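Q: Convert this sequence to structure tokens.
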Amino acid sequence: MIGKVFNNRYQIIEKLGAGGTAVVFRAQDMLLNRMVTVKILREEYASNNEFVRRFRHEAQAVASLSHNNIVSIYDVGFEENMHYIVMEFVEGESLKEYIKRKGALKLNEACNIISQLLSGLQHAHEHGIIHRDIKPHNILLGKDGRAKVTDFGIAVGMSDVTMTYNSSSRIMGSVHYISPEQVQGKAVTEKSDIYSAGVVFYEMLTGQLPYVGETPISIAMQHVQGELTLPHQGNFNVPMAISYVVMRAMRKNPDMRYTSAREMAEAVRSAYEGCMSPEEEALFSGPSHSKKKEQQQKSKKPFPLNRVIFLTLGIVLLICVVLLASRFLNQRAEEDNDRTIVPDVVNMTQQQAEEEIREWDLVPSILLRASSDEQAGYVLSQSPSAEQEISKGRTVELVVGSGIAPLTMPDLMDATQRMAELKLNDMGLQFRILEEHSEDIPKGTVMDQYPMPNDEVRPDSTVEIVVSLGPERSPVSMPNLLGIPLEDAQATLEEYQLVLGSVNKAGSMQYPANYVIAQSIPAETQTETGSSVSLTISEGPGPAAAVSTTFSYFVPILSSKPSAERSVQATLTDSTGSHVVYNQMAPGGSTITIPMSISGPAILSITVDGAQAHTEVYD
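A:
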């Protein structure tokens, strides 16, 4: 692939990486003399309509976007059975590679990157595009410090039916960063991208993922049911205000998240501004903000005062200090009275927990979450956690078990067996597969299911799907199709309930054009109805073109021992095929006669005692 030129313009220079469905290369745009990135769909997926559709959809999704934090699409094409997209080349590394190399990022750096990511997402959302696969792997960090979002391969428009299952019935998005609604197969909105952005922010702040497990399904279910350990609890350098931004972005209920990427970015800025140095503020806010502050500082000039005025002011200042100190002490006393300790209510019943929270002058807020039947009605977790000192009147969120929440049985009718298995696996359902013959439903297609579509089903139950085996087969003896026209051969196959496979062509002097000269299953062979039979038909010139010539060929048998017998074999290959025309023992020193009749061009090959002795060509 290195050195190949696409569209007489893009010359491949080096391989940058590979994913599950595509390979990415760095290339030179010879027309504009700039570096570009060329993404090529893997060859094994080039004929798969679903993968091709998603691949082209990536280009279409980003084509309408123009933003400093989104990788630009330059071109899209198809050449030599290869689908490709030409994109902006970002010299640098992915955020995932950066986190692996650096671990937890510094606070100012993490806030700067997440703000850029949210800016790009806001632009995409304003243009009706939901990314659905936000993760550090899809965020490129340029050497200029700019973060860019890429890989819109599974993006959808907000006007589409944005359910998480596509035609291949797999969870769309990466399991470590997927939103709860994507796991549950619910509608996807821009808040799904906000959730994934919250996970990315979490990983930057801690160097760890919020949820881990042994299987993708177990990780996905933690997004729905798992308790989130806040970033400041794992990294003491993370301010609590920043930690709460992550918590809100990663709410299980989309309605409780930020309403937009812009609102989340403003929350990050607000939480961070109180704890950054002037240098960090300049990095986070940009040069214009820093310059403005500098101008404001320069504009402050001391008011000229004479010594008398200084003495008037000194007395006033002393009085103010005394008054302020008194007020401060009173405020501290009042604040101490307005503070309380969060009680530990985990494992209490909902009623007990609410009463306990109110006794400490706090306000309980209930969030139901699916759980085991034994945990139903009990507090599973709380936020803020126990023993924290907070202001009175604050809200304490209590996550209460609601028991095992029923799932909605999907419609699997007419789906392929593989698609049905993927969908049930993604939902975490156990299933049993039954098979039955059907004259109408193609083999491998779901023909029945239990429970029926849209029925409620417990997550711990086992469902059944019935898959078609196709028509029931019976034994049949393969008919002889040699020497008959293709149309008659097709009719014969239908009569025997056999299926015509591929039809190839080959030259023949024996059979006229369009007559069968070979069949993949030999005649009289036992097979089954429904079997596929491939045929080879003649493309001429046929028997009329063959001219037969008869003559004798004389061959001297050389030998150092005249009396020794030698094995002589002669093979003639002409338009009628290959034939052994002589196969006898002959004494050394004798001359044998080989009578022959050839049709068209021919080759005579003679071996003596198994060794090639002579070849004669007849034009």
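Confidence is low (pLDDT under 50) at residues 154-173, 283-305.
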